[in-house]
Every structure is written in C-alpha cells, then in structure tokens.
Amino acid sequence: MGRAMSSPRPLKAVFFDRDGVLNVDHGYVHDPATMEWTPGAREAVAALTQAGILTLVVTNQAGVARGYYEEAAVARMHAAMQAELASRGGRLDALYYCPFHKDAVVEAYRHEDHPDRKPNPGMVLRGLKDWNLDPADCVLIGDNETDVEAARRAGMDGLLFRDADLLAFIRANLAERLPAEF
Question: What is the residue extent of each domain of the chain?
C-alpha cells in the first residue's frame, strides 16, 4: 500500500543514503581527510536532530567487497562524520552499511543478491525495527533509483536528491511533515 507524499503525518525519521547525499561522491569515499560534505548536509542533520527527528544512514559500501578498503575504514569515516556533526549540534542516530557485492574480490563479501544491498530493503527494515518506526512516519533520501526502490520495498516514501543543497531540498519537499520551526 503506497502512501502519497502529501501525507500530513509528521516525520519521525529520515533515512539517508550517504555518498551523493550527505557527502560528495568521488567514488569509494572512505578517507575522512578527503571527505567533502554536500552543501546543506551538516545543517540538515543538525536541524533534524534539534527537531527531534531521527537520522539514519543506509549505504552500500562495495569498496569493501572490491578490496579498496576494509570495514575499519568505514568505521573511521562514520566516526569522523559523527564528530563533525556533533560540533554543529547534530548526530546520525544509526549508520547501516552493506559491504557485500556480487562481484567481490574479497571472497567473504561475495554475495549474489544480499538482502542489505540496495535496492533490497534489508538495512532500511533493520532501521525500522531497531528504532520501532512505522514506515509511514519515515522517508528515505537517496541519489539513485536503487535508494528510492529500497524505500518502496520497505513501505516508505523515497525522494531522489539531485539538488545542490540538502537542507533546502528537505525544506522544499517535506515542509508539511516537519515541525513549523524547522
């Protein structure tokens, strides 16, 4: 059962894809020293945090499967993101990532169609369960059709982000679901 974006239900959580939404996607981003935030991303997460809306990340990290970096690099990247956001009054409440890929060179990460790899909804479903969320109270913002498809498969709305400023995008597309002070 699909829900229209005009739903008046207030948002309880925003799920974000990472690369291309929160940070500029330079390809297999994993080094905090070279990570570049997208315009408005830090401000968007801080504003959502301060409004009491959960922020969760669901990101495919095929670079692990391809042997470009290890899972520890993903953890370092996420820790650096959290530290930067904390300095601005924001936080990511949970970060889910999928290191699996069908073409993995690292055997341990080879999986033909892992349930967590978007467009499959595994990470989104885990976030919903972990935080006791109703999909109708959530939205996923991604920069690829696979993100929107993962949201659809989890029963929630998905928005395709291709704009320049994430905070402006959220205000323009989710105004009726945000607190008035947002």
Answer: 25-52+61-132
Q: Does the active-site annotation cover 31?
A: no
70 Cβ contact partners less than 8 Å away, ≥ 6 residues apart: 64
| Residue 50 parent element (H or E) | helix 41-50
pLDDT in tens, 158-167: 999 997 899 9
Q: What is the mean pLDDT of each run of 10 residues along the chain (182 residues)?
A: 57 98 95 96 98 98 96 97 97 98 95 97 98 98 98 97 93 93 84
Instruction: Look up 19 and say whether it is catalytic.
Output: yes
Which member of 17, 116, 147, 157 is catalytic? 17
pLDDT tens by residue, 93-126: 999 999 999 999 999 999 999 999 999 999 999 9
- Whole-number Å distance between alpha carbons of 151 and 130: 16
Q: How many Å apart are CA 11 and CA 47, to the nearest integer?
A: 13
Is domain 25-52+61-132 annotated with CATH 3.90.226.10? no
